[in-house]
Amino acid sequence: MDPVPTFRIISLFEDMPESELRHIASMCTVRAYQRHAQILSEHEETNDIFFVFSGNVRIASYTEGGREVIFHDISDGGIFGEFSAIDRLPRSATAVAQTDCLLARMRAAQFHEALVRNNGLAISLIELLVAKMRAMSERVVEVSALAVRERVRRELLRLVTTRGVVVHGGVTISPAPTHYEIASRIGSHREAVTREFSRLEVEKVIETSRRQIRILNIAQLKAEVVGQ
Questions:
Q1: Residue 228, in any domain of the structure
Q2: What is the pTM of this model?
């Protein structure tokens, strides 16, 4: 099977010449992971980089007490493991397959070689890292300065952007994260998120059902978020 169309899915490789993309593909190994499989563990001393062809991979960290902190989910076309591939330090987070996944894996030395050889790839990687740093900086400010009420509303707006589908005048998020998952993303706890969801339902801003959130009044949701 021609590997070029598959590797073209990866955001870093969208504009890469076909000959170079074939070379990239030749340096990768492809493997399927089942749902819930751990791909990487925090502090693991490996430095390969991973490319997501299909599925969803969660990047998270865990406190000594076992509390999960979710950084982000990586879906089709995304990459992870690039931090260790660049600085050769141990892994800073754990990666777990949230669905069945198909991933490609490349050794750090080969990735460095590709970056040196292809300026466009290096620039694309810089842009990706800057976007991740901006997103992380935004979350640090939110956790440091905003109340749970505000953080929940901001997370809902992020979900509208990344997962929302317009249905009958509203925006449906499906499958929606659980209250625990949202709490793990915004630096809170499940009970506080549940209270805020109840408040939003009473105010007719959202309605929820099993693994689905429907935004009924996105204008009001935005109006209650500072800076929107």
A1: no
A2: 0.87
Is residue 197 within 8 A of residue 186, CB to CB? The reply is no
CA distance 64 to 33: 27
Q: What is the 3-state secondary structure (H, E, C) of 6-62?
A: HHHCCHHHCCCCHHHHHHHHHCEEEEEECCCCEEECCCCCCCCEEEEEECCEEEEEE
CATH code of the domain in which 114 resides: 2.60.120.10
Among 89, 115, 143, the domain-final residue is 143
pLDDT given for residue 63 in this prediction? 84
Q: What tens digit of pLDDT does each residue of 147-175 get? A: 999 999 999 999 998 888 887 778 899 88
Distance CA 216, CA 164 (A): 12
Domain stops at, among 93, 119, 143: 143
